[in-house]
Amino acid sequence: MRRGGLSNNSAVAWRHRGDAIRRSVHFERWWEAHKFGRLTSIAVCSMIISIIILISRPMSLSGPDLSDNLQSSTHGVVFPLYHYTYFPNDSAEMGGREMWYGGRGAIRREIREESNLLLNILGGYSSNHIDIGHFYIEMKLGFPPTSYHFHVDTGSGHTWVYCNPRNYMLELSYWGPHGLFVPEDYSYLKCIGETASLCEAVQNGIEPCNSDNKYLCVFIAHYADNSYYSGVFVHGNFTVPLQDKSEANVLGLLGCVVSKVLQGSEQVPLITDGLIGLGNCKGTLMEHWSKSNVISQNVLAVCLAKELERNTTISPATPRGFISLGNDFKEQFDRNSVWSKLADAESGVLCGYAAKLLSISFHDKALVFSSRFARQSIGISLLFDTGSDMTYFDAVFYDPLLRMLEDYATLRGYIRVEDNDKYVVNEQRVCWEPPRKTMTGGSPIQDFLPLVLAFEGIPSTTESAPLQYLVVHPENYLSWDAQVKKLCVNILQDYSVGTSVSNLGADMMREHLFVFDYEKQRVRWQSNSCAL
Question: Considering the entire predicted model, what is its pTM?
Answer without folding.
Answer: 0.80
